[in-house]
């Protein structure tokens, strides 16, 4: 099985316009490597990979994971 097939996925659903989803890199220096802007009702499916160690969400959204759902507060 390839690494990408084992990586965790998350789903982010925006509850307002302008929700930012930011991918952060792995390694000694954590950096932003990708950003998406979602409008109300839009959904993004994101995957943790060899390059992505964290995902940051700014704005009102629901994040769906295998560990449960999380509502952002801002």
Automatic annotation (TrEMBL):
**Protein name in UniProt:** Transcription attenuation protein MtrB
**Start and end residues of each Tryptophan RNA-binding attenuator protein domain:** 6-73
Q: Does the keyword Endoplasmic reticulum belong to this entry?
A: no
Name the UniProt key words of this record, in alphabetical order.
RNA-binding, Transcription, Transcription regulation
Gene3D superfamilies to which the protein is assigned, alphabetical: TRAP-like
> What subunit structure does UniProt give?
Oligomer of 11 identical subunits arranged in doughnut-like structure.
Q: Does the keyword Protease apply?
A: no
Q: Which family does it belong to?
A: Belongs to the MtrB family.
């Amino acid at each position: 099985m390839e690494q990408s097939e084992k990586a965790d996925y998350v789903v982010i659903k925006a509850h307002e316009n302008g929700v930012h989803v930011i991918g952060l890199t792995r390694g000694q220096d954590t950096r932003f490597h990708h950003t998406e802007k979602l409008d109300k009702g839009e959904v993004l499916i994101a995957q943790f990979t060899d390059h992505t160690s964290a995902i940051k969400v700014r704005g009102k959204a629901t994040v769906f994971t295998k560990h449960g759902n999380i509502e952002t507060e801002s």
